Batch of 2 targets.
Target 1
Amino acid sequence: MQKHDLISDFSEVTPSAKIATMTHGWRAKCLQRLVRLDLPVPRTVALPAETVRAIAAGRPLDCDGVLACFGKRPLVSVRPSPQDPDWGGPSTVLNIGMNAERHAELVKTQGQTAADALYLRFVQRYAISVARLDPDMFDIAEPSAEALRNALRVYRDEMEEDFPENPAQQLAEVLRSVARAWEGTSARLLRQSKGAPADAPLGLVVQEMAQGFGQGISGSGTIQFIDPVTGLPQVTGRFLGQSQGSDIKARGADALYLTRDPRGPSLEDIAPEIFARLAQQGAACRAKLRDEMQIEFTIDDSKLAVIDAVRVPRSSRAGLRIAVDLARDEIITHQEAVLRVEPRALSELLHPQVDPRGPRDVIVRGIGASPGAATGRIVFTSAAAQASAARGEQCILVRRETAPEDIRGMHSAVGVLTERGGMTSHAAVIGRGLGLPCIVGATDLNFDTKELRIVTKSGRTLVAGDLITVDGTTGEVLAGSVEMLPPALDDAFRTLLSWADDARDIGIRANADTPSDAQTARDFNAQGIGLCRTEHMFFEEARLVAMREMIFADTASDRAAALARILPMQRNDFVQLFEIMQGLPVCIRLFDPPLHEFLPHSRDGLRELAEALDRPLSEVTRRAEALAEFNPMLGMRGVRLGIVLPEIYDMQAQAIFEAVVEVGRRGGSITPEIMIPLVSAKREVELVKNRIDAVAAKVRTAKGSDFDFKLGVMVETPRAALRAGDIAQHAAFLSFGTNDLTQMTYGLSRDDAGRFMNIYVQQGVYPEDPFHILDVDGVGELLLIGAERGRQARPGLTLSICGEHGGSPESIAFCRKAGFDYVSCSPYRVPLARLAAAHLALMDRFGHN
Amino acid sequence: MQKHDLISDFSEVTPSAKIATMTHGWRAKCLQRLVRLDLPVPRTVALPAETVRAIAAGRPLDCDGVLACFGKRPLVSVRPSPQDPDWGGPSTVLNIGMNAERHAELVKTQGQTAADALYLRFVQRYAISVARLDPDMFDIAEPSAEALRNALRVYRDEMEEDFPENPAQQLAEVLRSVARAWEGTSARLLRQSKGAPADAPLGLVVQEMAQGFGQGISGSGTIQFIDPVTGLPQVTGRFLGQSQGSDIKARGADALYLTRDPRGPSLEDIAPEIFARLAQQGAACRAKLRDEMQIEFTIDDSKLAVIDAVRVPRSSRAGLRIAVDLARDEIITHQEAVLRVEPRALSELLHPQVDPRGPRDVIVRGIGASPGAATGRIVFTSAAAQASAARGEQCILVRRETAPEDIRGMHSAVGVLTERGGMTSHAAVIGRGLGLPCIVGATDLNFDTKELRIVTKSGRTLVAGDLITVDGTTGEVLAGSVEMLPPALDDAFRTLLSWADDARDIGIRANADTPSDAQTARDFNAQGIGLCRTEHMFFEEARLVAMREMIFADTASDRAAALARILPMQRNDFVQLFEIMQGLPVCIRLFDPPLHEFLPHSRDGLRELAEALDRPLSEVTRRAEALAEFNPMLGMRGVRLGIVLPEIYDMQAQAIFEAVVEVGRRGGSITPEIMIPLVSAKREVELVKNRIDAVAAKVRTAKGSDFDFKLGVMVETPRAALRAGDIAQHAAFLSFGTNDLTQMTYGLSRDDAGRFMNIYVQQGVYPEDPFHILDVDGVGELLLIGAERGRQARPGLTLSICGEHGGSPESIAFCRKAGFDYVSCSPYRVPLARLAAAHLALMDRFGHN
């Protein structure tokens, strides 16, 4: 073989070498940075991906040339260097270069035991990974001269040749084996599962061994300077004498602590000077690599070598604190800190916890797989979970175990409980991803699938609809609802979001129907309420009776009389909301649901109603039946009720205006926004506007007090989007209700879509559930058409979206591009939305979009 | 008063006078045409509208100048001449110029009786219309010298002055009175009700009297040359000796027939020469005035005078025949004939009749107010009628009487029956307008509004849901359904439509689900079937059982097995349709409705089903409940079923293809069009296409026979319209289903809209029910977007609409402008659509659009 046929494209890692992540991988680049920091990194050679590919294809590397970089007779390791540390790669191979001659030398310098251990480790690894011999034959518990001889003999017997003595040949074989392993099917599938492209490149580094065996203080360890769960400063890690590589994993019990520790001896005790240097090097790494690093180090006879440094693996909470602390230390900018925290990671931090001081009626225990606690009614299927969510009811999805087809059900649930599975089960992984409290492996649950109920080992029975609380932090399933503590939203959290707000250029409001929602919105710094649904207010007992009287009234004045009884309660609703929101805008959607939702559905309920109304049961039944609808979603609701039975909106407007006056008298100030639902024609807005203006005039006169308000339209029908130019003539704002708009654009009832949505997404009919991710192509176009026509007709028109899409980063990106003024989302999504919006603004500014 | 203050803007009606309908009104213009035809029209002066306005405002006319046109001492009449004959106007005033002197002369020339009659008539009329005296005082049964003296005395007593003797003064007063009457409130309301603008102008004509009284053959009459009901040639009219003006109405019993008649003496008998001249003049009128005219004539001592000619009032049927006959006689062109028939008038001609040979069980009799017969189930409210129509059930709307708010109910009904009212009642007028069989004034019906039933005088009880037949031709209400005769579609009808087809430039197809529909479509020369809904085919007993087995099957192969039993029946459905359509295109929509429509809803039905399926009732009930949907319109139907349970479409495609092969073997040829319903995403089309292509390949192989087919998409969701560019990549045609598209664009269920649609239309929220008249602004825009994007992606794409809008002239105009290939409508609307489309093409060509 001619010298010029050998690949010679490799570089020694020096401060000035041309080494990039794209070509040489993250590890090579990281090592170069450490070198530049003057850390005691053993000499290293980086092989770019092109070289590795050529090796895999069978071309030989100039291994003599590589080894020459290290001086005379080095021992070296080979480590993978893919572009992203998460993409994995073949295991590290240590001690390449060991042979009989070198062994004999090491016996002299390091002693027999260390020499035997190093040589044996290499023979084992080489035999298994390179020669592909049966690992069982090399399974040796304790290194010894005997074990080494034995291993060399087994190798010779199996391979019918001696163990290779030539270091260059050893290196060549290791590199070839490692390069080919990267191209194997299982390695490819593994890295693809972590987001790598199928043809992801692999760089390799060849590094001089720091052995960790021998005289004096020798060994290997890792050190990091923060708690990976909380992100608070704390030195953690272990050191194991007479060890190298992954020995510490196998023999962790023998390892030393790093800092002084009552539980046992520490590196700080036995080598305070080395420990001090490590701490100093850690600080340098953090400052220069601009992140919290975990440092892998080896000590050879008290000589410290830094082998590697990787980003500390961290929880979401720790990630946030690290970013904030780095920015506070002026290592990174506020903007970088904002960009370092994934918006979706925030949801993990937001969930409430069971109050430890309250009573706990534990039904069953499992594994707390995703933190936080939630209370809801039991559902046994994903479809039921979706139906429940569609009705606005919180539910806990209880399954034997979950599978991919349950994802939409999990999205719809507030918590998940499974009989089977562990911390890495589907339910656990997805639960954490969604920030959804989750308990798995609750093996004391006994599913009676036929009867759709659960009988616990202790004999308690649970059926669908029962109220339970899952505490995903402790793994306890509690009966009923329990006292909760709000999520711990610490100083770092608030600081990061305030920096996000500095960068953000689109408003974030919250959907809030109740004072408690409003308080959450306020706590999360929402810039107002974007959608206050008023219908729930009519379901309280006292109001429901009046509502039913209103429904059965025969004349406008009887209807008005029934509604007059609701007026003071409704006014009080609004006073509360306005006071909590302290002058921030509150957008109130007028009454929306069909009236039959307020009637009893059982015969007994109807009989009671007939008694209450003092009318014949037959009449009550007949009129209730007459109100039933084939397609309630498309029926007599929203503004249609407002036109046909205008007394309802009259009452609501009066309640809003009187609340404004009342809050004003107490020193508050509010300009309420009144939103008309389900509009499909301009004239609907005109008619409602005329009546509301009249109510406003009446309240102004009666109260002798002036106030302003804005009237706008919820754009939920495709026609309203198309006719936005007309509609905007009477509307100060348009808010796109993407839930209903999606239903109508697709001709798809959310309540009924559960039955086939999984199949649709699996078969790629829809790329994603359009109720979960905004359909940019269809619904999105209607948003753009509506926005453009609305603004053209009325340049100052305020545009927004409300509904469940409001908080997702994708929707925020869409609305921001479309020039919307704000998005409104559920209160708990507000922090996520604030951060996502900041990301978008910053990425735009830095040209990353 | 100075002469130059007098208005002198009037013209004698000569062939060259400047007289136009716009300025002088239709009567002046018509008289000029008669003059030009050299007909013996008495000398006439026309007053333009400006002059009449000035007179009403109080300026005096140069009446001496007017009278001077007629030579010495004329008697004249004053008649109204508005722009349109339908706009009415003040009654004619005859014999102006009569006074004592003239009376004395006439006694000598015409005899005492005639002279007294003429003078008395004028005095009466003048006293009542001009002097505004009490008509009772002038109510004289028989003219006589005594009566005349009496009238003159009463006038003098009441007015405290003598009856005016000066003809110019008489004329001035009459003109002033007539001009002012036109501006009165009641006259204005009356003409506005007939479509006139509030400020419609009035011309007047002053015409020399042909008296109709006196020696020899004297009298007045009218003649026309066609039967106003059938349009067939037939001289009709009457002649009354010694009469003028409207005398014939009061003394019709004494009138002569015109042609020889066994019932009594005729003008032809007593004055054959005059009759011959009249006939000749009639023919001249028809040829020159280019229409069938009714001629008003007077005979003075055997001297014929033509007083006036108006278009013969006519039925729709007669109007059509007249137009065709005029064109056949080359008096007008084919195109003019086409334009003379209003498309909506055709529907009157299309209705079936009760077969007189069949048995008739008459429940009650009323007035046959709108011809044709129809069978349906009784509904008592418009809302019920609309709900019934939405379910596809024919209904008869039965009301005490109808009011404007019932119009939509009448649209939805196939017939109307009212207890009250006559030929001009609301129900009768609207019924005729809609071509809807209608019986009014069925006073033997006794409404029991509380119990919602009817008890007839003869003691029979009718409740909602009972099947009855209304025979709007005879006025009989029959029990149940009866044998019907198809509508008489005569030669004139077919000829006119063939001329329409010559002009038409957009295709017309029919929606046809059954062989009988298809036959009707074929009879009406539809150019194919634009929408064949296949679901009804699954409701037949034998198929329903298999369908239910399919629904309850647990595996794809069990489903396929159940469907295999339906296959031969379904194939036979298509064979029949293809054979009837003889090679014309047939567009078959794949299965669309939700599966729960095929399940029983009662507990008994479920029990029977459980027995039939040999499964526990609890399971059948549970699965039936699981199939129920919140919003079936937006649920698991259409292509969603096709994706989730692909075996259904597989079976249908196989049936279609096998039918094509079978028809081919019998010598027929057909390229079926297969249409996928409820599409919202391109991938849906792709998936269905893949399977249908596979079925086609399988059938080709199995049958050893090749065939073509087209696959297309029914655009019913707003998203499909927006994404038409994508979808067209897999679709050879797009057909817009405007029913569902309207529902989704408005977010409005047609089944549920009845409750408030009337209020909405009354309040102008929607200009019209969008399910009745296509919403051009909203739904129409989606049609345009879909059409444009579809054609852009696929230039040869066939575009159409199907659904109930398809047949309306407005929708055809819209689709034609948008470049659609065809519209598809219900079979009975096809003639109307063909004619409407021809009108549009012709109006475009003649620049009238």
Target 2
Amino acid sequence: MRPINLYLPESIAEATGARRALVGSAENITGLHLGKVALITGGSAGIGGALARLLALAGARVMMVARRESELEAARARIVGELEDIGFAGVERRVRILGGIDVANLDSLRLAVDETVRAFGRIDYLINNAGVSGAEEMAVDMNVDAWRHTQYANLISNYALMHMVVPMMKAQGSGYILNVSSYFGGEKFLAVSYPNRTDYAVSKAGQRAMVESMARHLGPEIQINAIAPGPVDGDRLAGLGGKPGLFERRGRLILENKRLNAVHAAVVKAVRRGEPVAGILGRLARNDTVQLSHDKSVPAELRELALACAREGDETCSWDRFLLTPPLAAKLTGRLKLGGWLIGTDWAARAETEWLLRVPPDDQPWLPVAQIAREAAKVRAGVLSQLHLGKMPTETEVAQATVFFLADRAVSGETFMPSGGLNVERSTTERELFGSPKAERLEQMAGKTVWLIGEHLTDYVAAAADALLGCGVANVVLMARTAQGAAAISSAVGDGGGRVQTLVIGEAIEDTLDEALVRWGPPTTIVSTPLAPLPDRLFEGSDSLDGAGFAEVVDTNLTHHFRVARKASLFDHCQVVLVSPDVPMGQGGGPAFALANFVKTTLHAFTATIAVENERLVHDVPVNQINLTRRVRSEEPRGDAEHAEEVRRFARAVLLAGAPLPDAEDSRYRARVYRGMSITV
Amino acid sequence: MRPINLYLPESIAEATGARRALVGSAENITGLHLGKVALITGGSAGIGGALARLLALAGARVMMVARRESELEAARARIVGELEDIGFAGVERRVRILGGIDVANLDSLRLAVDETVRAFGRIDYLINNAGVSGAEEMAVDMNVDAWRHTQYANLISNYALMHMVVPMMKAQGSGYILNVSSYFGGEKFLAVSYPNRTDYAVSKAGQRAMVESMARHLGPEIQINAIAPGPVDGDRLAGLGGKPGLFERRGRLILENKRLNAVHAAVVKAVRRGEPVAGILGRLARNDTVQLSHDKSVPAELRELALACAREGDETCSWDRFLLTPPLAAKLTGRLKLGGWLIGTDWAARAETEWLLRVPPDDQPWLPVAQIAREAAKVRAGVLSQLHLGKMPTETEVAQATVFFLADRAVSGETFMPSGGLNVERSTTERELFGSPKAERLEQMAGKTVWLIGEHLTDYVAAAADALLGCGVANVVLMARTAQGAAAISSAVGDGGGRVQTLVIGEAIEDTLDEALVRWGPPTTIVSTPLAPLPDRLFEGSDSLDGAGFAEVVDTNLTHHFRVARKASLFDHCQVVLVSPDVPMGQGGGPAFALANFVKTTLHAFTATIAVENERLVHDVPVNQINLTRRVRSEEPRGDAEHAEEVRRFARAVLLAGAPLPDAEDSRYRARVYRGMSITV
């Protein structure tokens, strides 16, 4: 018997839209996934579409689910046509679609699973591919709903689907869950910061962290892995349906943020000098660079900025004449309101309305087209220079590598990087506490106010309070979810000599922070801990943690910190410490332990990103993270003495990360060392 | 055309020795590597043999090279037979072998390349699979030749072959280099410690580091990646040719080392109390547990140990009666000699001779067989508990994943983990310097002696000397390769008030350290820097860095530190700091920069391993590492001021890592934080 190679007819390459036929490879996947049932979310385009095509070619039964029925139909028609041309029979039955599925909606996900089982009787591969790009703005400009939507669509959906299919896969004795993460979701033990995309980075890190921390709760029957594509030459990058592609969107964002941050900085600097904020905004509302640059009643910071902006334009745009657009103006007052800079002014109420008296014309772009292109080209060149092979893989190449990866029966808990060798800056998640803060840093805290946010982590928060009192702070403001929580922490704190204050957090954490701001002024340090313990449940048992329960974990442990840090990043002279959850002694190794490690890793994507973003803001607030759970169960405290030691270490870490930054001795390294770090105690 | 699946006849599974036929997968690789030429080192067994088989099945032309011709012939016969049975023609021509190839020998490697090209006209895939297990003993017991042999066989061979094939692959416009590393080679930015296998861990980390640091010097034509298998159920683990398998070897080693370390500790403790070492060894030579435990003239430490040992045995063995075997006795006196404990005694000369007066009988095992089995089972259970799927992959599974991985044209610079999800302890290579050493640690250095080893890194070494003089040390001993080097450093040091001494390193670094030991007593801190700069060459140009040149880099930057640390680990109250090479300003991004990152990563495997080993020794010497080169070119100093800042940071890091350990406040974490760390300054 001679070896048999099935060469695709040349025309197939064009018929399928693939850049080039993978001659020498594609023919080899025939039968590789014979009879397997794959549920692919977001299967109509991009990597998901390419995966659906190759899995079908490899003999699998494929259910593609997405929002738009029409796109799914087109994708299915292409695949069916191609396979029938090659000579496959029964393709119509093997390749199915289900439209109207929104991964941000848990009911919708239930339907996707039910329909797949109804069609094929089982699910062997769950491919969590669908996702959204996210808000594409800085954390300080992002609203909580936008953040939550990204987490639902990209992250909670993965868990919810997993939770639905796990019992079936366990019963089958096999199953494979593949999360399509991103290079910007980081790597094992390492976070990557992705400015302007913090919601996205967190969701992608979460997809990866889920794989790493939950694999042992799914084995031996079920494999769970992730792929983390870097930049991929295809639909997503080029822009879907006529919309601008990723690089162009980044280019726009860079220019818009540069302008917004400059205006924001000018306003804040003027207010710091004593100019009333209402007056500044009143003048800014005129939104005329020429007028602003000439009016002596306008604060100098704004005058200079207006002059610089007036020189920046060209004929194709209006951004030399108009300082802001209505959306940027709304972001500006949104920032000022969130940061407490509008308290006591009538702007506090009108911050979200359109307040510009003059707006750029509709018939001309505001942003200079040539500059967008230049910025986009820079981003693209930067990305390419980071790829060892100097080129991006295509969607088909990524899909092919993935189809091979899926054939491997020995790997679980791993993330595969089909784009390979990107050289981006990374930050270690498992940093150890060592060294002590210099005395002069601690001395700077004397007479200042610090805020501690917590509820059940009584001894940790109390120890931090004691340590801060020891530095001579004027006020320790304890904010707890309940009055009982506040009382418990308060009574565990040593003698504060009347310096310990308490507040009960109401419906919105932001209101409580505003109240503290009004009563005790801006804090030098904020320590944010989660307000509820982790559940000790995952996939097993009648009270297993379902999608809604997981959404709660995300809200308590990620969204909560986002909300605190987003606001605090708009304060002057503030350092923020975010704390990942603890697992009570004895629970090590169980579901709560896996969740704690999931949170720690995922949160670091936020910490690393906002730390970089904040360097572009006038307030320059460092954000760092302290982790209360170690990666390995055997390293967790085994008794009261060791727990007490951990509490002491936590308090020391709070001082290290929470005291004002050291002077510029190590200037170039300061940011790297003291910002966005993640210390495990 | 219907899909065509080539099912293998059932009998093939047995015929090939594979555990099970990979029905549903194996038939799919037909043609996947059609026409490609693969050179596989160590292709006769294990993963290499499985790879050769699958690559041949996938249509490649395969050259298997190894030492033993007979084994190669058997492997080839199996593959040829299998492929002919399936129906392939011309297999005899496609699958070739070359015996007598020793990867530890550069000439032998040249022959392998030449013969492959002669047979097939080109090389598409270089698969660096051959390797040795290494010395399998603690670093302090390992001799320099054994260490070097492991580096030649496992690491230098990879580079040497790469250097030979790169011009050909560049000319072809494509090529793929695959290094078969190991899970114990660590992961990107992370080192894994592998006690008793430091030579092996370093060589495996080097294979991986090479991929990460050199990929961009090989692209866009050439891909270079690694696979890092974890435990694999196959030849290597089970033991080749009737020899004991890995777990049994580990079990033996654990028992032997426990005994050796206990005797060693007893001797050292007695000497510390003032007992003359010669007398102790004289009594120990009797090697009779009963006698030793009853003789009041024997130091108490040894008496107690002998008593405990006498109770440990069973009828199957003699280790309750004999404290040591001749090999362990030689290791014991080897340690004492290396650590300077025999200076001035007549034992210094006879340390390596057989000195036991009484040795265990030949007709009975010394080690208790049941205990070996118990230890081996513990090791095996520990490994299995770390695998998410609770099972080890087979060699065929690993090979299949690799054959798929090799088909991917987009990945370079990456390490693929075909065993997936091992949960072992890792240590971060890119740790940042932060915090300062506590004053009480620095005060402990007053009046002590410190050793600084260096040559060309004048300003770094001088700054460290100044910082140490500032702590009030009694002597700074500068050891340089040349008298000029010593003079340059010495004159760059500030006023030492006669406290700065110099020594010129002769042929062997060990002799110089012994001289310093005699003249100024044991040091509290040793800072070891490489004695020559890195070459700024790799694969390109007429003066490219060949295998011999690379061997020199390994010797200067890895073997050198091994020699210093091995000896220093046998001193009392000593801290060791190993320094990875610097790249002069302006060279960033070039070959030297890649080499510096290669060294830094590879050295950390040593640092992390010896740090753990040393905790099992009576001297308990912490070993840490400082890196002078950052991972990204843009972070390197860009001018004199930034260089000066880096030098200051280096001196601070030397104090942090070099001062005596802090007290046990953070007891359980002390080892994690202060040992085996790798700080980049």
